[in-house]
Design a protein that fits this description.
It comes from Podospora bellae-mahoneyi. This protein is mainly alpha-helical. It is 49% helix and 0% strand. The radius of gyration is 23 Å and the shape is globular.
Length: 446
């Protein structure tokens, strides 16, 4: 049976699709065209789900992250098998040899090297595509359309983790300048250390927290500076986080630390009792192995999106940091002190409405809607819907209060939990337009 005949029989129902390899072959054929148009892997996952096909079994069936992950792995394998200069890409009939050559990336257990089970089965991870939390997607630490970098062992297998985290921190500091730089730094380092330690408890192979490395990347991304290093201007900070696109364009070099640290010191910095001082001074002599492609980028950024290099919701360390910032922003506030131009204040206001009786709730939500429209961050056509969708998220969490507005400490704890468990509320990441989930995006502050 030819590949085309197999696909036709699968789509007609003549052949039952009931194993990983069959779904993989179908996805490979769909990507033959789907990888170069529209939304790439995000379009193909919708096509698979529409026919009832998924790479997952049991509780992982139709897990969006798992299914997009295997499509991203297929995309990486296709690029590795191709000659982009001649346009020579593997054809549908090449699938058996293609799969054999890239089995390490594509086999049914491959996901275990990239995702911890707890992270993959998290409800948000099941609904929104999230990047791996154990190592980078293949080749995603190097620019597209340039020779791939050979990373030293000191860089680890998750070389984009800290630069991506720092990118989010710096953009947050530009979006929310009301918090002092010292507070932003404290929250960023504290949540990074906590999430790293928690992950290492079940996956000891994960690199330990290093304050030296964390502070280097915050400085490299120019935290607290009006200038930027890949993190964008104040205006750009309001756009979705697109760190994968920056990597693809050559806008960030994950080996930038080599200008200031030897591989030995960089790798062992986590065991030191204090922040290690740089042992190199190569700022003038060190030459980056990547080159920014410039703007327009010739479609490189779109290719990164097609390949799944950016998630629809961020990593644990990114979301935990944003939640900590939200709690800090709202500490001790009562209803009359809320600024509805600030997302965290608006969420806290909805929590307050959720414990009221029906009449009082409707009055408060109407008042909040009016005030949010006045801020200019939402139009009249979206403000009411935005508040209603937030209410649907927060209501189950505040039911335990039984209609009583709780104290400051309890409010902060519940707000943090809501945001950590529902990272989509931050709307910091681009979401596929085909995903049937509400978009919590707010316009930039004036």
């Amino acid at each position: 049976m030819s590949a085309e005949e197999f696909l036709a029989d699968a789509e007609s129902g003549a052949v039952a699709v009931d194993c990983h390899d069959q779904v993989l072959q179908i996805a490979f054929m769909y990507l033959d065209e789907g990888l170069w148009d529209g939304n790439g892997v995000f379009d193909v996952v919708e096509k698979l789900h529409a026919r009832g096909w998924s790479f997952g079994k049991g509780e992982l069936r139709f897990n969006r992250t798992l299914d997009v992950f295997y499509l991203a792995q297929l995309a990486a394998a296709i690029y590795r098998s191709s000659d982009q200069l001649t346009g020579d890409f593997p054809s549908p009939s090449d699938f058996p040899s293609f799969y054999a050559a890239h089995a390490a990336l594509l086999n049914p257990e491959a996901w275990r090297a990239y995702y911890s089970p707890a992270f993959l089965t998290h409800p948000t991870t099941a609904r929104f595509y999230r990047l791996p939390n154990l190592q980078d997607l293949p080749d995603s630490s190097s620019p597209l359309a340039q020779p791939r970098q050979d990373l030293p062992s000191a860089a680890g297998t998750h070389a984009t983790k800290l630069p991506r985290w720092a990118h989010n921190v710096v953009r947050t500091s530009r979006r929310q300048p009301s918090l002092p730089l010292e507070t932003i730094t404290r929250l960023a380092l504290g949540t990074l250390e906590a999430t790293t330690s928690r992950l290492r408890a079940t996956h000891p192979s994960v690199k330990p927290y290093s304050e030296t490395q964390a502070r280097f990347w915050l400085e490299h991304m120019k935290l607290g500076s009006p200038e930027s290093s890949g993190s964008g201007t104040a205006k750009e900070a309001w756009r979705p986080n697109n760190f994968g696109v920056l990597i693809a364009q050559g806008g960030v070099d994950v080996l930038a630390w080599e200008a200031r640290y030897s591989a030995r010191l960089w790798e062992t910095s986590a065991v030191l009792g204090e922040v290690a001082k740089p042992d190199l001074d190569l700022d003038g002599a060190w030459v980056s192995g990547v080159e920014w492609c410039g703007e327009p980028d010739g479609g490189v950024g779109m290719q990164a999106w097609w390949r799944g290099w950016d998630g629809e919701v961020g990593s644990e360390e990114e979301v935990e940091f944003l939640a900590a910032v939200a709690v800090e922003e709202t500490a001790g506030l009562e209803a009359e002190g809320l600024d509805f131009a600030v997302r965290s204040h608006a969420v806290l206001g909805v929590m307050r409405a959720a414990v009221m009786d029906e009449v009082e709730r409707e009055l408060l939500l109407k008042e909040m809607e009016r005030r949010m429209v006045e801020t200019g961050r939402l139009g009249e056509d979206r403000a009411g819907k935005w508040l209603t969708e937030v209410l649907l998220v927060v209501e189950p969490y505040v039911k335990v209060w039984q209609g009583v507005w709780s104290g400051v400490e309890a409010r902060g704890q519940v707000l943090r939990r809501i945001l950590v468990e529902n990272g989509q509320l931050f709307a910091r990441w681009k979401v596929s337009p085909l995903l049937k989930e509400f978009d919590f995006e707010l316009g930039p502050r004036e």
